[in-house]
Write a structure and sequence with these properties.
This protein folds into three domains: about 150 residues, ATPase, nucleotide binding domain (Nucleotidyltransferase, domain 5); about 100 residues, Nucleotidyltransferase, domain 5; about 70 residues, ATPase, substrate binding domain, subdomain 4 (Actin, Chain A, domain 4, Alpha-Beta Complex). Helix 5 runs antiparallel to helix 7. It contains eleven helices and 18 strands. The chain has a five-stranded mixed beta sheet, with helices on both faces. A five-stranded mixed beta sheet has the order 13-12-11-17-18, with helices on both faces. The protein has a three-stranded antiparallel beta sheet with strand order 5-4-6. Helix content is about 40%, strand content about 25%. With about 350 residues, it is an alpha+beta fold.
């Protein structure tokens, strides 16, 4: 039987949770959703199965997203999610007290950091270490952060957008905003409600964004039909949404992310700014899949922008590399006692 790793990496995202094992890399990726029986407290489903229940559950069942804007909003639901997902990759009969490295947003408070550590310890961890998402994303995107040169990463996830300039293995300047993919989905929901007086769900909004969403003017206009509920009649209604509609809906959120990127650049030492101008900005996170997002940022900053390979998995790949290389881990984590 293959030896079970004693080190686990958890990319605990607002939209998705990914688990990596030392020596094996990414082994699981599931939506950060939990379905719970409100009467008994029993877990009915986690991940993909729970996401399918969003908006469709009877009164005695609740499907929840336990993280909001990258921060734990429901401690117990988060614990149940992590524990259930870990049992999928490590049989319960082989479970042990592992060392867990878990990602956190860059501007998290001490109280919020302790909540993350606490929920990880509650799952049975022997030791817990915290690693900034933006650092993991940079490593996973293949940036040469150890060199005495400036490299810039922008990670647009589900709950937060993180950006940083790194050099000599550390973060020189960083920024974070609680605006990302989930907020864009909500923007689309609100836009359709205001324009058509029709209410759709977040899942439908996410599909619209994926199909015809664009960060800048598209060469051709695309359309998609979506079903919702007319708020006046209460009856089902189908409306047609265009790329222009989606762009107008998410433009404010995109501009907030852009201002955070510009602020990060303004706070970067001139020598490193020159490096970024030459080497460009690398995009990671699920938000990097938004059509023309790299063109939008490049046109507004005057800096070349590139999308990382498999951008949604960059944080998980960075975690995997840190687990496999103790020196990277020592430089990257924020907690103590790596030799325990």
């Amino acid at each position: 039987m293959k030896a079970v790793s004693k080190e686990i990496g958890i990319d605990l995202g607002t939209s998705y949770t990914r688990i990596v094992l030392r020596g094996r890399g990414l082994v699981l990726s599931e939506p950060t959703v939990v379905a719970i029986n409100k009467v008994t407290g029993e877990i009915l489903a986690v991940g993909n199965q729970a996401k399918e229940m969003l908006g469709r559950t009877p009164d005695n069942i609740i499907a929840v997203r336990p993280l909001k804007d990258g921060i734990i909003a429901d401690f117990e639901a988060t614990r149940m999610l992590i524990q259930s997902l870990m049992y999928r990759v490590i049989p319960r009969s082989l479970f042990y007290k592992p060392r867990i490295v878990i990602t956190i947003p860059s501007q998290i408070t001490d109280v919020e950091s302790r909540a993350v550590e606490g929920v990880a310890y509650k799952t049975g961890a022997k030791a817990v270490y915290l690693m900034e998402e933006v650092m993991a994303a940079a490593i996973g995107a293949g940036l040469e952060i150890e060199k005495p040169e400036g490299s810039m990463i922008v990670d647009i996830g589900g709950g937060t957008s993180e950006m940083a300039v790194l050099s000599l293995g550390g973060i020189v300047t960083e920024n974070s905003v609680k605006i990302a993919g989930d907020k864009m989905d909500q923007d689309i929901v609100e836009y359709i409600r205001m324009k058509f007086n029709v209410l759709i769900g977040d899942t439908e909004a996410e599909e619209i964004k994926k199909q015809i969403g664009t960060a800048s003017d598209a060469m051709t206009e695309e359309k998609v039909s979506v079903k919702g509920r007319n708020l006046s009649t209460g009856l089902p209604e189908t409306v047609t949404i265009t790329t222009i509609d989606v762009n107008q809906a998410i433009s404010n959120s995109l501009n907030i992310i852009l201002r955070a990127i510009k602020s990060t650049l303004e706070n970067t030492p001139p020598e490193l700014s020159s490096d970024v101008m030459t080497r460009g900005i690398v995009l990671s996170g699920s938000g990097a899949y938004l059509k023309n997002i790299e063109r939008f940022i490049s046109e507004q900053t005057g800096i070349p922008v590139f999308i990382a390979d498999s951008p949604a998995e960059c944080v998980a790949r960075g975690l995997a590399q840190a687990l496999d290389n103790i020196e990277i881990l020592k430089k990257s984590v924020k907690s103590r006692g790596l030799n325990r």
